[in-house]
Predict the 3D structure of the following.
Amino acid sequence: MRKMKARFFLVAVLTAIVLPLSAAGKNKLVGYANSLQGTDSNFGLSNGNTYPTVGQPFAMHLWSAQTGRNGDGWKYTYAATTIRGFGQTHQCSPWVGDYAWFSFMPVTGSLRVGEEERQATFSHDNETAHPDYYSVTFDNGMRTEMTSTERCGHLRFSFPKGEDAWIVIDGYKDHAGWTIDPATRTVSGWVDNVTWINNRSTWRCHIYMQFDKPFEAYGTWDNRTNTVIEGVLSEKGSGVGVWLKFKPGTKVQVRTASSYISPEQARLTWQQEVGKDRNFDATRKRAAAAWNQLFGRVLVEGASDEEMQTFYSCLFRANLFSRKFFEYKEDGSPYYYSPYDGKIHDGYMYTDNGLWDTFRSQFPLTNLLHPTQQGQYMQAILQAQQECGWLPAWSCPGESGGMLGNHAISLLADAWAKGIRTFDPAQALEAYAHEAMNKGPWGGANGRAGWKEYWQLGYVSYPESMGSTSQTQEYAYDDFCAWQLARATGNAFYEEVFGRVMFNYRNVFDTKTGFMRGRDIKGRWTEPFDPIEWGGPYCEGNAWHYNWSVFHDVQGLIDLYGSDEAFVRKLDSVWTEPNDVHVGTYGGMIHEMKEMQLAEMGQYAHGNQPIQHMPYLYCYAGQPWKTQKHVRDIMTRLYDATPQGYPGDEDQGGMSSWFVLSALGLYAVCPGTDQYVIGSPLYPKVTLTLENGNRFVIEAVDNNADNVYIQSATLNGMPLEKNWITYADIMAGGILRLQMGPRPNTTRCTTKAAAPFSVSNVF
Ligand code: CA
């Protein structure tokens, strides 16, 4: 059983306000967002695997307290009792690690530079953690506060009276160089720590920072031996940190900017973003305003404080990735260092996203909230392909090719379906075709693992390819996206090419067992078959989880079962099967397995992506009330705003966006179409203020924890007799009004006319 929610929640409770929200209330929404959500995680069990992020929406640089050792993916763990630094971070997930990290640590008393020696104890009682602001007062009386802009950090350190005051800058082992200028109170330099970069030779993060108090003394230290090098400065680097001495009892602010382009650009960025605001509180005010502005565009009414905390904490994490990887020239035009070819280009670049995690919910949410940015990102995807030869699949910041599928096409097709016209669809289809018919040098999702078998046999074979069945299913969905884009843009050639293979999911469906299964090169099913065994032909899941990965053709999947009744029986079984795990080729428990067991929802594994859309599939088979019941159950049982608040890896906004969309009563089962499937909204009222200025209101009349079932619905006053609405419906503004009740309406929206999109129905 998961730990129950709301054991504590100090700050947000104190700053919480009464409903309904006034204009002043909207200016406090950021106070609901708890950036500690999901931080009580470790290698073996993820409650989110997050860290207390300070940052702006989609910011280039984020900031976090650091409890773990330098280089440890578990940067901040809630169970820790000491902090060893406050650093610039870009980590998407502990599983891919950080890059361009460096940290500040205040030290009082004697100078201690090493990350073990300098760490200081703290208690969560003395910690405040929101998107715009983090502060902690250590047991020894030191205090650190952090806030930020898109590309700059602004930190404030308060030292106890009567003791020497130091700030140690740790540029990470072996890769840092610094120059100290006491006359201007500046430190400038660089770090180049990184794992995933496609051209390491030109990779460097240039840093420029200015302090507001004079240095009493200063110098460098060797971070391999943790010894002070008094007075000796090194610009060359290889394991050098900085120490600075300040007056006892002082309050020191530092404003710091980073650039991947040049030292000059770091300094320009510093001037652009923090040069004017000498005062920490002024920067903080701007940071809060940016989040309040965004949060105010998704305005929840009628929710409890606890519900507000959960929603806005999730909305915060749904708006951090993909990362803005561009900087601004003096004339205000964007340009960027490419993590793919290592060169400088004009235009926008976005990176830091594992698309396997995010195509399902984060991007369909982003298309609603940020279509302009999404248009820039679509250009960036194609630009990235030009620069490294492959479409991004898992970039952080260079391309790693992690996980499976070629889901960049899902983003492109989804953007096109939603009216985004910033890219050339023919170029997108060419790039995708290259992706689908080749294998790249990195990972399984860089090109296609098993692409030859897929095209020749109609499926990826096992055991030649680990995760072969998952690959077949996801490739077929991606091919659908390409077909959809080709069809929409009059590209007959690719419509024909991808139209032929988008039904390939059928080739791994075994009618006898009713599961998607592994097949060998001769077409024989992989034996012995065990539906609860993880791994083998399935990636991070088992047959129960991948059965549903036919996003584009749920009706086709229903047909494989023979009837709606048989299909619904299978869906129902997911929840009632024992939550047993056979570890299969993983050879031991991985955290996703444990999270499925802790959720106590049978074989439903919300802790990982493959099955997260499955609760919505009842809407295709005449029993939408079961969707309504299950999604409410998942939202209220598996999410809250605490450090244990996610049922598994948060994954660059993926887990959060599922919640945000579902709480609105919507979900995008099939990105690449313009539909949002209707679930069961969590609150009485939400008002979306769209980029075009229109407002879309979702009203759930008589909504409460018991009244989870939709009795009737209207869209702009007209009866709504289907289980979905379109992107255009939302963007046009209007009111979706749902009458909620305690019992299922088993006659509403049960026909095929009410079912959402399936490609089988197109033919
Ligand atoms: Ca995951």
Residues 357, 608-609, 649, 651 surround calcium ion (CB under 6 Å).
